[in-house]
Specification:
heterotrimer; A alpha+beta (396); B alpha+beta (641); C mainly alpha (332); B: alpha+beta; Dipeptide-binding Protein, domain 3; 4-stranded mixed sheet; 29% helix; C: 332 residues; MetI-like fold; 2 domains; two-stranded antiparallel sheet; 14 helices; 2 strands
Chain lengths: 396, 641, 332
Amino acid sequence: MSVETASPPAAAAAERLPHYVSPQPFDPYSAEEMTPQQERYYMASQWRMMWWKLKRHRIAVASGVILLAMYLSITVSEFLAPYDYQSRHSDFIYAPPQGIHLFHDGRLIGPYVAGFDYHLDMRDLRRVYTPNLRKIEKLRFLCHGDHYSFWGLVPGDLHLVCPAEGGTLFLLGTDRLGRDLLSRILYGARISLTIGLVGVAVSFTLGIVIGGIAGYYGGWVDILIQRLIEIIQSFPHLPLWMALSAILPVTWSPLLVYFGITIILGLIEWTHLGRAVRSKLLALREEDFCTAALLMGAKPARIIGRHLLPSFMSHLIATATLTIPSMILGETALSFLGLGLRPPITSWGVLLNEAQNINVVALYPWLMLPVVPVIVMVLAFNFLGDGLRDAADPYR
Amino acid sequence: MTRVAAALLLFLAGAAGAFGAPALIETPSLASAVANGTLPPIAARVPAEPLIVDSAPGTPGGDLHMLMAGSKDTRMMVVYGYARLVGYTPALTLAPDLVKSYEDEDGDRVFTFHLRPGHKWSDGAPFTAEDFRFWFEDVAQNKMISPSGLPPELLVEGEKPRVEFPDPLTVRYSWSRPNPMFLPALAGPDPLFIYVPAHYLKQFHERYAEKDKLKALVKAAKQRNWAALFNKLSNGYRNDNPDLPTLEPWMLRTRPPADRFIFERNPYFHRIDAAGRQLPYIDRVLMVIADSKIIPAKTGAGESDLQARYLRFDNYTFLKEAEERNDFTVRLWRTAPGSQLALYPNLCYNDPVWRKLLRDVRFRRALSLAIDRHEINQAIYYGLAKEGQNTVLPQSPLYKPEFREAWAKFDLPEANRLLDALGLDKRDSEGIRLLPDGQPLQIIVESAGQSTEEADVLELIRDTWREAGIKLFSKPSQLTVFRNRVFSGEAMMAIANGIDNGLVTADMPPVEFAPVSQQQLQWPKWGQYYEDKGHAGEPPDTPMGRELMRLFNAWFDAGTKDQRRAIWENILTIYAEDVPTIGIAAGVPQPVVVNNHLRNVPEEGIWNWDPGAHFGIYHPDHFWFAKDERVALPAAPAAPR
Amino acid sequence: MLGYIVQRLLIMVPTLIVISIVVFTIIKLPPGDYFSTYVAELQSEGEAVDLQKIEFLKKEYGFDKPVWEQYLYWAGGLLRGDLGYSFEYNLPVRDIVGDKLFLTFIVSFATVLFTYVVAFPIGIYSATHQYSWSDHALTLLGFIGLATPNFLLALVLLYLANIYLGVSIGGLMDPRYLDAPWSLAKAQSVFAHLWIPVIVIGLSGTAGMIRRLRANLLDELQKQYVTTARAKGLPPFRALVKYPLRMALNPFISDIGSLLPHIISGAAVVSVVMNLPTTGPMLLEALRSQDMYLAGSFLMFLAFLTVIGMLISDLALAALDPRIRLSGGVSR
């Protein structure tokens, strides 16, 4: 055998495919590459996903918008209200609502109200107001009206809409001292809407702290706190309210009384939050991340606050949103019992309490209109809260 | 009874009346009980010398529906029934009622009462002097039943009366000094009871009852001792024991607690009408218990035949409108308070700077001048009230126009001038006057927070006081807290009802015009000093206070009517000049709802507690229904609106 | 199981003791006492009051003793079954409460029934047709009851019912039946009056129930077994009712315990407005006038009922749901 016979393997090797290395840059994750939409979806944070899910719930979104509008209106109540909340008109006591007209004799002359013809029926002792379409009182906009003190600090008198000079603008009628109801509702919103927030802040804190301790430690601490929650929940609220309101000293200024009442309401409502926190914590504290943090030497407070809570903050917010309406209703109920805010403070509860008698129901039903914003607010909070809660677990 | 027979009988009775007591006519609803022997005939039930009421006679029968707010209101039947030893007439003079006659001798020192022969309690037992003796010796002076001793109206500077019973139908009370409060106390709405049904109560008294029996009764009623049981069962005013015999026209038949109380006619009632019928005309009074806030609504739905309690002036329009749907009319009666609402500057306020200011008469006058009473009247009372100070009303014989008009005009320039003269002429940026130490002139007016009327009036006052440079804060609170704050001097000023009785006569003691009660919110500590006989409170230490006390004591020593009148005038003049309370408007009408078929209810009357007993002086026992029967409430409304 | 019951019963004892202390504190908290309120009221109306007699009564009933002694006296009485004495009515507490309990039960029972009847269909519909407009409309209806302050609604309904239907205002029956024995006419009158309080009180409870049912049902409907059942051809109604609904019923049972106090205290405000002869207004008035024994004993009675109610509902839940039984405790 000669050496030349070894050449066919070399020749075969010379005909094999060359080793190809693509000069293109290589992306190991290209197989897993996502479309931009997919990327948005998978990379989105928890909050963003919550928002997307919330948007599907149309009523919740509408409610959110309404609530935002109402809360914004509080900041400029003085500007929005046609009158000051205490300004009274002795000549227009128990006046019915005035409608806004646009046309007169077929011509468009701008928004105006028909002035009242007043007549006191001495047989019935009834004040009779007849709208007189000849008395045209044109509305003025961005005008100077009643003086006010903006947020108690800055004096001013610019209003969004005012009555005509020497005229009246009682869109929702007046009460027994001739005070415009619409203005009082707008001012009352300040107290009623913020009572809910402050009260919820109190419940929130209490609920998280107490529920957190119960859920985290478990054992007899948990049993004790559960019994406590049971006691508070099973106790009829009425006596608790009455007793707690009776403690508020009479010498306190109205503002302090207001805060006292929010705290009272908060003290009674925290149990729902506490329960929710506790049950979630009980489930979550077995998770690995919690064990890891524990092993790394974190204190319980840090574990609860930094690791556990954020995982279900969305649920908490949803529950908190659902507690606000019961605060608002609690305030109206307290006013009804004579325990809450009293005149001259104006809140929706105070206004409703003043409407709570047969004279109003039979003769002056427009004074019951403050019930409408209460209903709207409570409904809005409820729907928003529902939407938030549905959205809180976006992976479903 | 047919109409012809009734008319004939009336004619006969009228003829007979000319010769003495009319012939008695049996009460139709009791006729069956008389027939089967459970009740004696009318001649045996009515006293031999009954009280003949000479108003237009009516027809017996019917049920009167009323609304009240709690089971404690059964006492209202004692108030409305108004059967008293001595009672007020509609003209507010005293007249014998349960007693046949009485003598008041020796300048109010000796009182002799003559009872009616044959007068019986509601269970048929005789009403005699024994009932008075039992009360005086065994009840009022028994240490266990009455630990605080005799009622204050029976004590003249601590002296007990000498009580004599010359015969079974005569009782005599005598003191060594005059006791002008005795008769008014007997005629009051919540009267001084100096008699009790002895025959019924003796079984609960340890001196007369068998020991074991009494013990068993006490145990069964779960009371602590026999005295507690006695007190529980014997309270004629509280009227919660159906077994307790009474002299009132209607007796309680329902045992509390209940939602509806039934009162039936007293078959032994002592009054008859001119035709010989025994009063009351109405067979039964049905008292339905409802929450006080809902009573105006229920009245407007036609559920009450005679209603004024728990109705306020601001319900008038609603009730008037409800007239069309129902079978009643709303009348307006006059009220007697000196002012519907009044401001009470606390002359015993703790803060020394403010106390000095409040005690300065010029300050009070300025406050009074800075109130626009006309606006308040128009806005809240439809112009129907009478503006003026918190003092006697024009219907009182002691009235003088200057009393009500003193410092009651709306005069801002004068008010400002007075305040400037006091040294309060510096003002801050808002126009509020400053005290010498730089504090703003802020007055905190406290109220019991029970009515919106107070809040409304304060709103109106706030605006006018502001123009005088005074800032008003209103602080509604709770009844007990409010009173305690005023009594202890922590409240600067209070707003409450004015003088209860603006219809005083010279013969009534000036209790509301002198510092003799802690309830007087303008000088609670002086009043407490008098009430507690010096053990608590402070003695009056201003000339006005001392002078009023002197005049008050002088009234009791005054012997003749002229002397008393002169003292009253003195008191009222001081009151007008010194303005210890600031009145606003009086004479706010009281709506009275009367069923259209109910007769003999005055069109216009006075709605007052003492004197007046609300409906009492108008004698509801002679109200009657013009139809034969009215037992059912309307099942359906007349027509929907 | 038995151990669980015994454990709960044992825990009830300290719970009730704590509640009794809380109740007593609550009643004693406002300044003053029954007699000072009583005196103040009478005097402010111009009626004369014998102050010394009041002092005497105060001593009789031990008001001058220290607070803890009064508490022990009352608590001791409760253990003996002696509910105390009411100053307002001048009668033992037991006599007063007894009458009203029956009517309270009628009202509460009718209200609970109404709540369940309304909440059930709305909740189910809402869960199965999530986010549709009819879902929103129905939930709105269910929630309106929650949102309206019920005291105002009660007054308006009372007035309208009187004007248009001739129903007498307030109360549970026409006044002429108040002391009459039970008859068809009386029962009819009760029904005619009953629907207003039932609607007013019941509506506020429906919202919560709807929400819970909806949430639970939604949870269940997401689960695998439901998809499997549908995929395998089970008719949709059966797939809904036979399995997921049963799971979603848990809160209804567990809610019975907490529904009772809500109804009784929510009902108190409405009952006052509507003048119902139930225990609500009685409690409110007793608290206002500080009628110590009536308020305290009745509150204890309520609390006792509630605690027992919770125990029963927990037991019912355990009986109903084998998971709870087997895992040895209620996990919420």
